[in-house]
Every structure is written in C-alpha cells, then in structure tokens.
Amino acid sequence: MKETEAGYRLRTCAGGWDERGEFLSFEGGRTHVIVMRLKVLAGASTIAPLSWPWWVWVDPTPSSPAGKAGALVPVGSPTCSDIHRHQENKNRLKGSGYMARSWLNQIGKLTLKALLLGAMIVGALIVLEGSSSVILLCFLLSGMGERPLAEQRHTQYDQVLGWVNIPNLVVQDMYGPGVFLRTNAQGFRGSRDIGVNVPDRKLRVICSGDSFTLGYGVDDDHTWCQLLGSMDQRLEPVNMGQGGYGVDQSYLWYKRDGSILNHDVHIFAFITADFYRMETSKFLGYGKPILGLDRGQLVVKNVPVPRRRWYAPWATRSVAAIRQLKSYELAVRAIRHRRSRQTDGDDDTHDHTWEVALKVLESLHEMNEARKSVLVLLCLPGKADYLSSASEIWRRRLAAESKKRGWVYIDLITEMRQLAPDQIEELFIPPDGHYTVAGNKWVAQRLYQRISALPQLSRKLAGEH
Questions:
Q1: Does residue 85 form part of some domain?
Q2: Whole-angstrom distance between the N-terminal and C-terminal Cα of the chain?
C-alpha cells in the first residue's frame, strides 16, 4: 500500500511510485509507466487515473482530510492481477506494432540490398560494354578483320564529285564469290563503252543515282538498270549509279559526263536519304561538293573537294569504327529524336535543301529537253520505308511539284507497302538493306511497266520519233 500526498492509501502491486504519483513496474531492467497518474479531485474524496478504464478504490487512513474519508465511486479495485493483465495487453499491442515495424525494416533492408545488387550489375555491364567498345575500337582502327568500305575498292578521288569509279576496272568477287563489278572507260558500271550517239534501233536509258542504282550487292547483269535492257532488247541502259552519292553529286556527274551523250530517257533515281546528303560536305569521312544558291542560281561549293581521306585512309577507318560504337548510335538517335520533335508536318527544317533540290530538278529538265530526252524522277524504296513515314515530307513535295510542272514522277514506295512482310524480306540484303537480285528485278519490272506506258516513250518504242 502507498499513502499519497492527500493521505490516501492505494492497493499496489510489484513496482514503485514516483514523485508524480505514477506507478512504475520493472521488467527486464527497463522501466515502463503504467498510466496511473493520480489526482485528488477538488471537492471529492476520490483519486482518478487520467487514462485508466476505471476508478480506483481509495482506502481512508488516519491522515485523511476531514470529510474525505471513503470512496464515492467504487467501480472496481485494481488488483495486482488487473494491472498485470492491462500491462500484458499493452505489451501485446506494442509487440504487434514492433513486429510490423520489424517486417517493414526487413523489407526496407531487402529492397536496399536488391537496389545495391542491381546497381552493381548495371555498373558491371557498363564497365564491360565500355571496355568491349574500347577493344573493338582499337581492333577496327588497327584494320584487323576489317571489311573495307565497298566503294574503296572501285573508286578514286575526283576534285569535283568527291569520288568516281576507277575506269576499266574488274573486281571479280566484289560482293562475294562470283559477284563481280566492272567499269568501262568512262567509269560507268558495265564493260561496254558508251558512244555519243545512240545505236540504231536502240533507245538509250541513262540511270543516275546512288548505290541502289549502282547495284550494291549484285553483279553487273542484275542491277535494276541493266535488267531494263534484258526485259526489252530495244533499250540500251547506261548505269551512272555511285555508292554514297547524294542528289547533288548525281546531278553533277550527269551534267559533266552524262549530258554530253545522246539519250532518250534519263531516270534520275534517289532514296530520300539522298536529299539529306546534300546538307553535308562529307560522307563517311570523304569530302564531297555542296550545292547552294546565289541569286537564284546553283553554285558549287567545297571544290576542289578536300582529298585528305584519300591519302589518310586510317582517318576514314576511324570514322567507320566510331560509327559502330553504341555511344555513337545513342547520340545519333537522340539527335534524330530531337529533330523529329522539332519537325511538324510541312514545317520542315530542310526548306533550304528543298529549294536547292528544286533548282537541280529544273536544271535536269532543261538539259534533258535539250537532248529531247524524257526525264523520269524515280523515288526508290528502302526497307525502312515499308513502315516508316520519315520520307513523307519529301515525297509529298515531289508529287505536288511534279504534278504542277508536268514532270514524270514515279514513287515505288507506295507499291512496296502493298506487299506482305515475308515478301519484303526477299527484296533486301541483310543487314545493308540494298536490293537483292529479286529486289532489283521487282524494281525493274514495275519501272518498265510505268515508263513503257509513257506517251513520249511508247512512240519512240513504236519507231515514231
């Protein structure tokens, strides 16, 4: 029993009371406060615990104040077992909270460990990828196991065009065993030299373009240009395609070496990437000319073309090696993504390029009219065009301008998109994406159907000049 300051004695169990009237129990060396703060209520002879679920029975003592003997509200006397039971309930609740917090702590620790493990794996992959890229870069720079740029085997420096075919060249296994490439004395693909005049009973067809026209990956006889002659013996094809050429270089080569030849049809072929090549002074490290406008007239810039890549082949090899790095690929994708976000419909960032290209097409028509030749603008499909809409801006502009001016414009991308996916795979060489023999044949067949139906050409094929 304990006598309070008010002179009352309470029933207590094992423990002690502090100076504030709080009962303290001792468990395992730690002190826990059982909420039993006592307070003498003014005008009453009871002592109530502030957070106890019952009133406490108070026994009077000789020192109790007068008039305050006995308890007025004897709800129940807290015995030792009552206090212990209440303490156990609190400990149980406290234990449940502790267990919950313990589980949360365990989950947090496991999550932290998983994050650390993931970070270590990612870091290891980064180090491995980085070291592999460095090793690969050194391997490529050394030239070991290098597959040389195809054009290096059959081209030479040209101060106006950047590069042209080496004349009178034969590379027997150019693209594989028996897949040959030959050039004539003029540097055109094929073994037969082309005279100024068209042979009797023949219609000469000049094919200008890039590697898709040159016939990268197939032999001389299976380029789409040459296949036109196989389909109709009255046609004499002249292949003026060159790997890596943009619209500007194809135009300049025809102007210099093609326009001097009499011809009946000029097929000016391109993929949409050829327009973007007009915007740069280099291609894979090799210098090239750039076309610009001066008072509405075409001017050629960056000529003579710098030839440092030709006498420093290691520099070109360096560019090709860097292009194989993942960091380079990531940077290119980021730039393309940024450009695509900046481009909206016809509000294109390449308006100047289109203005120059339009002048090129006007000049081509003037030169062909002077030769009484039919100019055919041919948009060739790449594999990416099957699903991608990146070429839409250029194609819409070409179609609209051709319709307005009465130009002959053939777009084979629309026809290619009508094919089934498995048919598409048969047309392109993996991974380069150039035409297979079947792909060149597909282009030649559709092109021949279109040009043979042209009134200007059909009359010539019928012998009406």
A1: no
A2: 134
Q: Do 334 and 287 reside in the same domain of the chain?
A: yes
**Residue linked to tokens 């207590």:** 12
Residue 87 lies in a domain: no
Residue of 248, 232, 216, 196 lying closest to 151 (CA atoms): 216
Supply the range of the domain harboring residue 14.
Answer: 1-78
User: CATH code at 192?
Assistant: 3.40.50.1110
Backbone φ and ψ of 290, nearest 5°? -130, 135
Q: How many domains in the chain?
A: 3
Q: With bands split at pLDDT 50, 70 and 90, how would you rate the model's confidence at 459? A: confident
pTM of the model: 0.67
CA distance 205 to 225: 8
Residues 129 and 71 in one domain: no
User: Is residue 453 included in any domain, yes or no?
Assistant: yes
| CB-based burial label for 10 (10 Å; 0-12, 13-18, 19+) | buried
Q: Are residues 338 and 405 in the same domain?
A: yes
Q: Measured at the alpha carbon of residue 91, what is the angle toward residues 88 and 92, in degrees to the nearest 5?
A: 85
At residue 172's C-alpha, the angle toward residues 171 and 174, to 5°, is: 65
The tens digit of pLDDT for each residue in 340-390 reads: 555 444 444 489 999 999 999 999 999 999 999 999 999 999 999 998 998
- Residues 208-232: pLDDT tens digits? 999 999 999 999 999 999 999 999 9
User: What are φ and ψ of residue 409, in 5° steps?
Assistant: -130, 125
State both tokens at 404: 């307005």
Q: Residue written as tokens 């196991």?
A: 145
**What's the confidence (pLDDT) of residue 379?**
98
Separation of alpha carbons 203 and 461, rounded Å = 8
Query: What is the total residue count of the chain?
Result: 465
Q: What confidence score (pLDDT) does residue 14 get? A: 41
Q: Is residue 405 in some structural domain?
A: yes
Whether residue 253 contacts residue 274, with contact meaning beta carbons closer than 8 Å, is answered with no
Looking at the fold, whether 186 and 297 belong to one and the same domain comes out as yes
Task: Return the half-sphere exposure (C-beta side, CA atoms, 13 A cut-off) of residue 135.
Answer: 6
Predicted local distance difference test score (pLDDT) of residue 456: 85
